[in-house]
Amino acid sequence: MTGGAFKDMWDLGLVGFGNVGKGLAKILDEERDALRRRYGFEFRVTFIATGSRGSLLNPAGIDLGSALAEVGEKGSLRGHADATDKDALSLIRGRHARVLAETTVTDLRTGEPGLTHIRTALDGGMHVVSTNKGPVSVALPELTALAEAKGLSYLFEGVVMSGTPALNLARDALAGCGINGARGIVNGTTNYILSSMEEGMGYGEALGKAQELGYAEADPTGDVEGWDAAVKAQVLAMVVLGEPLRLEEVERVGITGITPEDIASARAKGARIKLIAEVRRDGGRLAARVTPEEVPMTHPLAGVMGAANALTFYTDHLGEVTIVGPGAGGVETGQALLTDLLALHRRHGKA
Hints:
Shape: globular
Strand content: 15-25%
Strand order of the largest sheet: 4-3-2-1-5-6-7
């Protein structure tokens, strides 16, 4: 590997340079000195690979500011001084980094191309941090076993609530508690639409505004029909409750049928409609669902508006514990990747 004699230097490879990949690069570029001073975290980004915008390779470290400027001004990396014709898999197989940050687009059916990227990286001895929900949904047991067999880490904090540390809260801060379930708002797009409808917009107008602001894709199906929230419920079941669950086993209803009349009716009852993802143990059986619900104004989830997310964990020692924070955004999700990188540094630093 290029790390060679630099045992305290982390060589990072980025696959995907959309909003999240650029968000991570921006943080790393701006916070380099602070990360060294506060955490002893030294790094260089040795490659950046994209599907359609070209790739970069520099074993001595890519200038992240120039890469961000290049893609911002020209929409491509092909004119950059470190441009290479190598694709993502070639760069991963070339062992040009110790850690892969994988942020390609999610495919919930196959997990690709992220699944192959992550599997190849782990098999070749690279740690992986990722915000890609597809591989977690499709192949978490396999990828976890592969990482353990290789003495590596596969971390994915950002797949549930972007940079808001829901998984770390459950696994670390609530260690020792028995967590019997989780319930919350885990899709910022639908929460924004429902919040806008409460302000008087119709569904179509609210969706259009969400698309204009970049909260919703041109094809919003994954959000408004509940698929994104469903895969997050699946991840919570597997990671927090330790229960195997297929995505198809999550009961799912989206928000496309919600009308202004439904919003007004809930308000008259002292409630707000929220798209709620829930996982819980029901006797000896795991239950998981995503559905619009009337949430009483007295509950913390009712006050979560706009594109924010929130999740309540049900514990034995502490009762209900709720975390609220951003559920989307390039820099916000990039923060989740940085959190995972610092966790790697604590576990495997100077190795």
